[in-house]
Amino acid sequence: MKKILVTGAFGQIGTELTDALRIRYGNDNVIAAGHKTKPKSKLLDSGPYVFIDTTKRRTIEAIVKKYDINKIYHLAAILSALGEENPQLAWNVNINGLYNILEIAMNNKIDQVFYPSSIAVFGPKTSKVKTPQDTILDPKTIYGVTKVTGEMLCDYYFKSFGLDIRGIRFPGIISSEALPGGGTTDYAVEIFYNAIQKKRYTCFVRKDTILPMMYMPDVINAIISLMETSLPRLKHHSNFNLASMSFSAEELAMEIKKHIPEFVCEYQPDPFRQNIADSWPMSIDDTAARKEWGWRPQFNLKSMTEDMIKKLTKKLTLVN
C-alpha cells in the first residue's frame, strides 16, 4: 500500500483531505504533518501525526525515510492576507518549502506530488471574466508571486526530471470543518458562523465584490480525481484552472437570509483586502480540467449554502 504524507494537514484543505485520504487508503497509510507539536484535531485520533518544518529539509526527509513515503500532498503555505503582512515568511514557506519537497521527492523516488496553486496567480492584466487556462500571470501580492513561482518550479521538475507533480489553481474555498487561515476570501466562511451565532456580520469587502468560490467537498473530490488520473491524459500538470461558482458578497448574504431571515449583513470594506480581491478574476474557464480529467463540480451557491448552514448549526450546537 502506498504511504502518503500530507503537509499542512491541519489547515483548511488539509484537515478534510487527510480525513478523506485515510478513508480511501487506510488510516495508517496517511501521515498527517503539521508545524505545531500538539495541534488540536480529530486527525490525531485516526492516524499517524508528525511534526515537520517544511523550510528545514532534514525534518521532511527524516519522515519520508521513516514511513517509506511515495506520495506527497504539499499543502503547507502562507495565504494572501497573512502573506502581505510578512512577505519574507511567505516566500520562505511557500517557495523554499516547496523547493525542499521537490528535491526530496526527486532524490527519494516519490511517485507523485500534489501542489495547490491559486487564482492569486492572476492580476489586473488578466481577463476577469472566464479567465483562460493559459494567459498572462500578473499577480500583485506576494502570495500570488509565490504561487506563480511555484507553478513554474513544478513545471521545471516535471520537464527536467520527470517528477509527476500535479496542481490546481483554487478559487476561494468554503468549509464547514476548518476555520479560514488568513486568506482574502475568508469572509465567505466567517459570514456563516456569524449568521448562525450572532445573526449579524460586517463584511470586509464591498457587497458587489464577485469572486469565484468552491465548496470543500468539491475541492477534495477534485484533488483525489486529478491525482488518480492516468498521466498520459494530462496536457497540463501543476496549474489547472478550476471553477465551481461565482457570486457577490451580497448574493451570498441574501442566500443565507433565505434560511436565517433575521440575518443582517453590513459592509465595511477593508482597503487592504479589497484591493487584493479587486485584482482577482470574477469567473474562471476550467475547460482544460473538464477535458483532461473529467472535472465536474457538484455544488452551487444554493446547495452549498444549505449544506453549510445544516452542518455548522449542528457543529456549533454540539460545541455549546
Summarize the helix and strand pattern as letters.
EHEHEHEHHEHEEHEEHEEHEHHH
Structural class: alpha/beta
Quantity of strands, as a count:
12
**Biggest sheet statistics:** 7 strands, parallel
Low-confidence stretches: none
Strand order of the largest sheet: 3-2-1-4-5-6-10
Q: Span between N and C termini? A: 41 Å
The CATH topology of the largest domain corresponds to Rossmann fold
Assembly form of the protein: single chain
Backbone CA Rg: 19 Å
Helix content: 40-55%
What is the strand content?
15-25%
The dominant shape is globular
How many domains in all? Answer: 2
Explain what this protein looks like in three dimensions.
- The protein is of the alpha/beta class and 320 residues long.
- It has two domains: 195 residues, NAD(P)-binding Rossmann-like Domain (Rossmann fold); 99 residues, UDP-galactose 4-epimerase, domain 1.
- 44% of the residues lie in helices and 16% in strands.
- The strands form three sheets. The protein has a seven-stranded parallel β-sheet, with helices on both faces. The chain has a three-stranded mixed β-sheet with strand order 7-9-11.
- The chain starts with a strand and ends with a helix.
- The model has no long low-confidence stretch (mean pLDDT 94).
